[in-house]
């Protein structure tokens, strides 16, 4: 698809070289042919593939390609695009047009789309819906993003606990079809409180006169509307779930969460955390965004890195007389700092994973800290010895070899400590541990690596 658009751009450029009297006619014919070819390709593509193409195009070709997507498929395509591209496409549309394309979608999907819009534009779009649809969408939007309530699917099948299996079979035959990912039915009492789950296997295999309460599974895995999708993802992976009931504070069934929603949440979180790890946001996913605006979003982290780099340079400057007397120190300094940074990043990754899985309580963090310090000391002693031997073979200086071995040991232990302490401190300060830990770690390992290496050299060699 992208190659097709590229070839068409070349053809359009060649048409511009034709004589003026033929140019308009040929241009119209070529454009019509281009649109027909693109529309044919889009009509047979999956919404996720179309979204991938849209995310790979600049604004002009992207708008053209999206305009050729069939109206009834545009909502599904928008659901597959990244947050930044989705917002850019929606902001170019009128509220009436948005209301038309979201008509076939579920309330949860509609809420997901309109949440990308500014508050005023969101109100204008919701005003185009009927009252019942507005109420359902607003109900989903009332839950904070990232909670189970924000991804709730209200299309499910519930059966009373006192019913017979034959009654359930009759109910299912009347429905003609079942919601996607339906492997079990929700069993409720007269107050619509969840009593258990009835597997479709039991509906098929159990005796028709058997009661639902006799065939259901009690104490199922359930979620409250304010539970986080991160907790849901952990539970789905742990118990191999396909769907699970969602209840309110009164234990009444209000919907379900499906594996589709969980996978989407996992993917979105992974992309978001991958960007935050290097100081970027979801807005940076739009590769066609203005360069000046994208550059300004990166200024805070560049300026912070500049400050930490300047701090490291001042440490080096303070030991300039030592470096002048033994020039080999300048060549070996980056090794100590680099290895410390790598070791610290591994500790940061383990701590953040523990936080994600809910395994970062005080006792667990203390145990993790002791373990990481032991690993840092072990690796520092081992690889410090290796680095010391290599240094001796290259420079033939026993004292220098001892200094770099000791410095590496010190820096790896300190890096392990900072790798555990930085995300823990940021979480305690209610800051993002993913975004800030790398900056703190880099500054610490550079500063302490230079200080340990040059300080030991000044003490032991001069």
CATH architecture of the largest domain: Orthogonal Bundle
Shape: globular
**What is the CATH class of the largest domain?**
Mainly Alpha
Overall mean pLDDT stands at: 83
Proportion of helical residues:
55-70%
| Rg over C-alpha atoms, rounded to the nearest angstrom | 30 Å
**In percent terms, what proportion of residues is strand?**
5-15%
Name the helix and strand elements from N-terminus to C-terminus, one letter apiece: HHHHHHHHHHEHEEHHEHEEHHHHHHH
Can you give a write-up of this model?
The chain has 462 residues and is mostly helical. It has three domains: 2-139, MgtE N-terminal domain-like (MgtE N-terminal fold); 158-276, CBS-domain (Roll); 290-460, SLC41 divalent cation transporters, integral membrane domain (Tetracycline Repressor, domain 2, Orthogonal Bundle). Helices cover 68% and strands 6% of the residues. The protein contains 21 helices and six strands. The chain has helices at residues 2-15, 20-43, 47-56, 59-67, 74-80, 83-91, 95-101, 107-114, 119-126, 131-141, 165-175, 200-205, 212-215, 229-239, 259-276, 291-318, 320-325, 328-356, 362-395, 398-428, 433-460, and strands at residues 158-160, 184-188, 194-199, 223-224, 243-247, 253-258. The protein has a three-stranded mixed beta sheet. A three-stranded mixed beta sheet has the order 4-5-6. α11 (165-175) links the parallel β1 (158-160) and β2 (184-188). The radius of gyration is 30 Å and the shape is globular.
